[in-house]
# Entry
Amino acid sequence: MQLNSRSFRLGELAAALGLTLRGDSDRTVRNVATLGRAGSDDAAFLANPAYKRALDYTQAGVVVMTPQAADDFTGNVLLSDNPYRDWARLIKLLRPQPAGSPGIHPSAVIAADADIHSSAHIGAQTVIGSRVRIGKAAVVGPGCVVDDDVQIGEASRLVGKVWIGGQAVLGQRVLVHPGVVIGADGFGLAMSEGRWHKVPQVGGVRIGDDCEIGANTTIDRGAIEDTVLEQDVRIDNQVQIAHNVHVGAHTAIAGCVGIAGSTRIGRYCMIAGASGVAGHLTICDSVIITAMSTVLDSIDQPGEYGSGIPARPHGRWKRLLVRLSQLDDWARRLRRLEKNQ
Amino acid sequence: MQLNSRSFRLGELAAALGLTLRGDSDRTVRNVATLGRAGSDDAAFLANPAYKRALDYTQAGVVVMTPQAADDFTGNVLLSDNPYRDWARLIKLLRPQPAGSPGIHPSAVIAADADIHSSAHIGAQTVIGSRVRIGKAAVVGPGCVVDDDVQIGEASRLVGKVWIGGQAVLGQRVLVHPGVVIGADGFGLAMSEGRWHKVPQVGGVRIGDDCEIGANTTIDRGAIEDTVLEQDVRIDNQVQIAHNVHVGAHTAIAGCVGIAGSTRIGRYCMIAGASGVAGHLTICDSVIITAMSTVLDSIDQPGEYGSGIPARPHGRWKRLLVRLSQLDDWARRLRRLEKNQ
Amino acid sequence: MQLNSRSFRLGELAAALGLTLRGDSDRTVRNVATLGRAGSDDAAFLANPAYKRALDYTQAGVVVMTPQAADDFTGNVLLSDNPYRDWARLIKLLRPQPAGSPGIHPSAVIAADADIHSSAHIGAQTVIGSRVRIGKAAVVGPGCVVDDDVQIGEASRLVGKVWIGGQAVLGQRVLVHPGVVIGADGFGLAMSEGRWHKVPQVGGVRIGDDCEIGANTTIDRGAIEDTVLEQDVRIDNQVQIAHNVHVGAHTAIAGCVGIAGSTRIGRYCMIAGASGVAGHLTICDSVIITAMSTVLDSIDQPGEYGSGIPARPHGRWKRLLVRLSQLDDWARRLRRLEKNQ
# Structure
C-alpha cells in the first residue's frame, strides 16, 4: 500500500487543502488509514460521530474532523466543516491516481477513421470502431470495445473491459468501471402470430459530465430517443438502466438496482441497494428510496419511500406469513363482531 | 442518427410492408422518431392508445397505427392491425443493421481445428477455441471468447465481449449482447468435514433458434444434463439462469430476474423485472409473474402471480411494519373478543 | 460429452475413491449421467431420497449412494456415507479438467516487471500489468485483464474475461469465473456544495484459499482497509460484494445477492438467492438467510432468518395488499371493540 503515495508535511497539507491545522506543522504523513490502524505517518479522518471513541487510542499523524469533534483531542487535527469531502481531497493529494500516459498501445485495434486526441491513452487489446471520437486526456483502459460512432469526452476514463456502443456520447470526466455495458439494445419485443418480433433499438445514450458508472452495470440505448444521465449521476455496481430512462443530475443509485424502461428519475434522488423501479414512472426531485423497495407508482412529493421488509427469525417469519393469509378471514370476523356488538 | 438510414417513398414503404397507405404515396421518409419529435421526413407509430393525444400535434411524415386510432387523423397513415410489430418491420427497412463482413480480423486468435464458415465474421481481439463450429453468416463481434467445443448456428450474432463455454450449442439467429456469460459452471457444492467440495459441472447449454440474451446475463452450464432455452426465448439484461434450468419457447424474462437450479419454466411465460424463482420448481405455460415477486412454489395454472409490495412514504411504511409485528397479538385479541361475545 | 472422459473398471474406481463396491468389479464406466438417462457405461448417483424411485428403472452401470438407499437395489453400487461429495470425487476421475499448459500465449501483453511462474498459463489476448505476481500452475484464461500489483496464488484459475485490480491478492486454488470484476472502486461519495465528490478508494482485496467466484460477480476493493473473503468462501453468479465487506470462511452466497459496504458476515453462513444485506452490519457464524430476504439488522444468534413473501395468484395478492392498507383502521376497530365489551 506504499504505492504511488507522496509525503507531505502537515503545514504543506493544510495549505494545499485550505484547512486550518491544529498541531505540529512539521510532522510528515505519507499515507492514509482508518483511525484504528493509522500509524504516526498516516492521515485519518472522523466523519461519523459514532466512531469518536477511536480518537482515544488512534496513533494517526493527523485527523481530519470538525472543530466540535476535535474538542478534547490532543493530537494533530485538520479542522474541516465537511471532513468526508476534505478526506476525499486529502487522499487525492497523498495517493494521486496515475494519469494515463498519452498514446495508443500497439496491440490496440483502431479504425482508420477514429479521431483520438493525441493526449488520450488507449490500452492494450482495446478495439476502437469507426468514427469514434476520444477527447483530450481521456483514458480507454485495456480490453475495452468502443463501437462505431461513440464519443468519449475530455478526461473521461474507461478503466478496462468496458463495452460501449449504441452511439453513446459521454461527457467530460466520466468514470466507467470494468464490465460496464453502455448502449446495448433495450428489451423491445412485439408479439405476433405466436412469436416475438424484435423491435430494433435505434436511440442513443447520453451521459453527462462527472458521472460515475459502477462495475458490471448496464445502461441500454434508447428505443427511438436517447437514454439519458444528466451530469454528476453516480451509479454503483450491477445496476440495470433500461431504454429511455432519464436520470436527473446529482442522483445516486446504489448496487443491484433495476430501473425499467422510460422511467424518469429526478435530480438529487437516492435509490438504495437492490430496489426496483417499474417502467413509465416519474419520480420527482429529492426522493429517497430505501433498500429493496419496489416502486410501482410515480412519486410527486420529495421524501423517503420504501417497502423493504426486515428479515426475522424463520419461525416468526413463517407465522407472520400465516397471519397474512388469515387477513381475509379476520376482516369478516371483525365485521361480525362489530355487527353483534 | 442519420447513420445507416435509407429513404423510402410512402408508396414503396407500404408495398414493402404489405400495409395499406392512407395519404400521399410520394412523400419520402428517411428515419424514425417518436410522435412528439418526428419531422416531416420521419416515420412514427402509435400502439398505446394512451399516447393518442400526440396525434394532434405530430409533424410525422407518416404514422403506423390501427384504422380505429387513425379515424380523425388527417396526416399520412400506414394502417396496421398490429402497429408495434409493423413498426419493428418498418425500422428494419429504414435502419438496416449493417451485416458483418465475412472474414476473420487479423488480431483474432483462432484454434487450428475450429470450423468457421467462410461467410462468418470474427471480430478484432476475439479468441476461438478448439473444435468450435461457427455457422453461415454468423457474427462473433470484437473481444469475445468462444471456448472449446462450442457451436454457434447460422446467422447468430454475439455483439461483442461475450464469453461462451460449457460446450454450449446455439441455434440459428440467436442474438447475444455484450457481457453475457453462457456456459460457466453452476453452483454445485458438497459439504464434508467442515469444508466445501466443488461438484464438477459437466453438462452443457442448448439455446434454441431466435433467442435473445441481454447484456451481462449469465446462463450456467448444466451439472450433468444440459441447461436449455427452447426457441424464441427472450431474456433481458442481468438475468441469472442457473444450472439445469429449462425455459420453454416464447417465454420472456425481464431484467435482473434470477432463476435457481433445475427449475422448469413453461412456454409463453412472462417474468417481470427483478423477480426470483426458487430451484426445482415447475411453472406451467402462460404464467405471468409480476415485478419483484418471489416464486417459492410450483405453479400449475396459467395466470398472473405476484408478491411485490408497492413502496409507500416512509412513515406509513414504518407504521405498517409495526402493524405486521402486532398480528400475533391481534389474533389473540380477536379470539378473546369472539369468546366474550 | 465424450470429451476428456476416461474409462474405469468399477474395481479400479472403488479403489481410487476408497469406497466399497457391491457388484461387478469388471464392469467398465466411461462417463457420468443422471439416474434417468444413464446407460450401462455411465456412473450415476443418488443423494436426495426424493429421487429414490429412479432406482427402479435406471440403466446406470453403477450408482453412488448410501447403504440404506441401496438396500433393495440389485445393480452395482459404490457405497458412500456422503454420496454427493463422493460423486464430486468420481467426476474428477472420469472427467478430469484439462490443466492449463504452461506458457504465455503470444498474443498476451505482459508488463516487463510482471513475475509469472514458469508453470503458469497465460491465455490469448490477456493483459498482465506491472508488478503482477502469478503463482505456480496458475491459469489466467483468455481475455483477462490483471491490473498492476495484483497477486494470484498457486493453482488459482481465472477462467477467462476476468478483470482484477485494486491490488487484489488471491490465495491458492481460487477459481474465478468469466465476467467477474474484483477490485473495482467502491461507492464512496461525499456531498458538498450541491454535488458529489468521489472519495478515492485505496484499500485492497484479499481472497483466501479455495474460494470460488461465480460469473459476473463483483467484489469491490476497500475504501481504506481491505475487502476480505476468508478461505473456502463460495460465491455464485451476479453477486455484489461492496467495499470493506468481510466474509468468513466456508460461507456460501447464492446468485444475485447484494452485500452493502463494511458488513461482516460470519463463517459457515448460507445466503440464499437474491437476498440483500444492508451495510455496517455484523452477521454471526452459521446464519442462514432464505431467498429474497432483506437483512437490515445485525444478527447475533445462529439460525435461519428471512422475509421473502411467496407469490400468490394476482387477485389474492391484490386483496392482501388492500388488507395491508387497512391494518391501521383495524387497529382502531379492535381497540373500540375491546372498550365496548
About this structure: Chain C touches chain A through 73 residues (CB under 8 Å). The first strand of chain C starts at residue 8 and ends at 9.
